[in-house]
Write a structure and sequence with these properties.
Elements: H1 3-32, H2 37-68, H3 72-97
Length: 102
């Protein structure tokens, strides 16, 4: 494989990583210039903490599936586990999503 091909494959991954890394400081700097910035930054800190808490099981599932899935049977077992967890999470949050305020 040539270096050019590796670079072209790597470039979108790097761009995605760069945008994800720059997101926090850019959002914080923007919020810092708004009125009532202390409350807004506190709210952003809570939202970021909750989003990391919510998405951490998915990140763990990615690492687990990469390590454990070797054939079709283990893939189907992993998919069943994922859909069970997804059904539980969506079932738990469904009343909030269907509330008229949202």
């Amino acid at each position: 494989m040539r270096q050019k091909n590796v670079f072209l494959f790597w470039l979108p991954l790097f761009t995605s990583w760069l945008l994800m890394t720059a997101e926090g400081p850019i959002v914080s700097a923007t919020i810092n210039r708004l009125p009532n910035e202390v409350v807004m930054l506190a709210a952003q800190g809570i939202v970021v903490s909750l989003s990391v808490l919510i998405e951490s099981p998915i990140i763990n599932l990615l690492a687990t599936s990469t390590a454990l899935v070797k054939d079709r049977a283990t893939f189907l077992f992993g998919a069943a586990v994922y859909y069970s967890l997804d059904g539980f999470a969506n079932g738990r949050h469904r009343p909030h999503r269907l509330h008229p305020c949202f």
